[in-house]
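Whiteboard transcription, Tuesday session. T.W. wrote the structure tokens on the left side:
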């Protein structure tokens, strides 16, 4: 660690007896406590003892070590990290919304329910679905909910033998995980050399035991599945349903709708496509939409608009049950609604097109120095297979770590698994050409270093709080506290 630049840990600044607070006497007799003896600590906690300026400086200095889309370019790929307009935050923290209690009487939260219902309707229009629920808390939670809807539909028809889900080998890892949690067996289908689903291989495993086929379109390579309607017809003819993983919906906004492609159930990542902050475990939201005929299977409660124009909560007898304590992550929903209302129809369509333009611009600007395994127009993201020149021994991991020295968060690496040195880039629509040009220049510079001074790249990063660790040891024996570091 570069102590001169990044400063000391707060435990190293601790001095016995220093305090950052002064509390008035509590009026209790010395040694008195209202807690049972069994709940009391045997010794005082090992907390740092510092004054208030030191506390403030410590946390401000620590915050500068955090990376986010507000501080720099985030070319992640696989997980849309676009800029979150601050008006979204202002709407989410309005006292009239933020101060609500989820168990208030329906008559006292009509505005909140209207916002909820409005977002449901907008998502249904954007996705080409009949109805949405906003109850799921995350994308994977939405996947699980959607698969539960599919199981409930099959069960309602007495078709209990459908216990399999077909997933392309390029799918996000949450797809097979969600299917397994839903009690379904995962059948993997290989991709074609261009990254799209092998339709013949899919046809070979379609039978009356298949409940659904899960797809992302555009797929994980950023390639649009042009035979999606043909696939949907095959799946429906086999009596199964089509599930749309909405993680890659961003470039489709205002251009194409999953419902029109033949999908029956879908989830949307509000925290990706509709610009609400995420990362570090949350917050998130994974609304689920269904085509006509599947509405009654959505989780309870459902927000509905009554005949008199008021809003209420509905409980469906055919529902799969409840998937969240109330109605999902309301603050994230408000941010998404604000984003949609701010952009409008034309703005959303422009966002999708610009995401595609930016991705292709970066791809074409780097294809001579990074290996491009799929030479096609991409949508929002694309995948390189490491450096074009493999003789230096510089890996994708080395490139990612070297990017940190230049102030960029690394993109997704070693996913998808179709390529040995996958490096996945998704610039999003919110980045300017100047930002992209700077990123392209850095990527080209790293490629030059790999050829001329490979050890510089292999030993990166050089100017981060933590240098080049032993990745295996760091994963198996992490040092997560100051006391671990002192051992």
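and on the right, the sequence the group agreed on:
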């Amino acid at each position: 660690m570069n102590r001169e630049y990044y400063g000391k840990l707060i435990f190293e600044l601790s001095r016995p007896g220093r305090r950052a607070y002064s509390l008035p006497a509590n009026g209790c007799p010395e040694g008195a406590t209202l807690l049972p003896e069994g709940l009391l600590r045997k010794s005082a906690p090992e907390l740092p003892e510092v004054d208030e300026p030191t506390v403030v400086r410590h946390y401000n200095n620590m915050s500068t070590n955090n990376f986010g889309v507000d501080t720099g370019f985030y070319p992640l790929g696989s997980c849309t990290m676009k800029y979150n307009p601050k008006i979204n935050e202002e709407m989410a923290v309005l006292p009239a919304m933020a101060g609500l209690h989820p168990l208030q009487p329906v008559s006292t939260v009509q505005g909140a329910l209207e916002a909820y219902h409005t977002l449901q309707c907008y998502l249904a229009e954007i996705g080409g679905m009949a109805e949405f629920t906003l109850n799921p808390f995350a994308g994977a939670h939405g996947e699980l909910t959607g698969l539960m809807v599919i199981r409930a539909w099959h069960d309602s028809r007495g078709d209990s033998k459908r216990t399999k889900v077909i997933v392309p080998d390029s799918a996000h890892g949450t797809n097979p995980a969600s299917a397994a949690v839903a009690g379904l067996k995962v059948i993997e289908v290989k991709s074609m050399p261009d990254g799209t689903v092998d339709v013949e291989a899919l046809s070979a495993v379609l039978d009356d035991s298949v409940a659904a086929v899960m797809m992302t379109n555009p797929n994980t390579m950023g390639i649009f599945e042009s035979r999606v309607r043909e696939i949907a017809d095959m799946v429906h003819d086999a009596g199964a349903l089509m599930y749309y993983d909405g993680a890659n919906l961003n470039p489709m906004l205002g251009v194409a709708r999953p419902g029109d492609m033949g999908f029956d159930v879908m989830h949307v990542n509000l925290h990706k496509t509709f610009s609400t902050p995420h990362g570090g475990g949350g917050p998130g939201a994974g609304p689920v939409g269904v085509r006509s005929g599947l509405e009654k299977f959505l989780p309870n409660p459902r927000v509905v608009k009554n005949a008199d124009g008021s809003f209420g909560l509905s409980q469906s007898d055919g529902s799969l049950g409840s998937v969240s304590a109330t109605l999902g992550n309301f603050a994230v929903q408000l941010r998404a609604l604000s984003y949609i209302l701010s952009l409008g129809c034309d703005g959303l369509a422009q966002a999708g097109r610009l995401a595609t333009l930016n991705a292709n611009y970066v791809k074409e600007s780097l294809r001579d120095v990074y290996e491009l395994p799929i030479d096609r127009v991409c949508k929002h993201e694309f995948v390189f297979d490491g450096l074009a020149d493999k003789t230096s021994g510089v890996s994708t991991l080395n490139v990612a770590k070297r990017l940190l020295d230049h102030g960029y968060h690394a993109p997704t690496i070693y996913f998808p698994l179709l390529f040995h040195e996958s490096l996945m880039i998704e610039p999003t629509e919110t980045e300017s050409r100047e930002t992209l040009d700077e990123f392209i220049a850095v990527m080209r510079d790293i490629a030059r270093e790999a050829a001329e001074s490979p050890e510089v790249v292999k030993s990166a990063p050089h100017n981060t709080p933590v240098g080049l660790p032993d990745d295996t040891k760091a994963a198996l024996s992490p040092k997560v506290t100051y006391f671990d570091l002192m051992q």
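Someone added at the bottom: The chain has three domains: 3-29+42-63, 86-342, 347-476.
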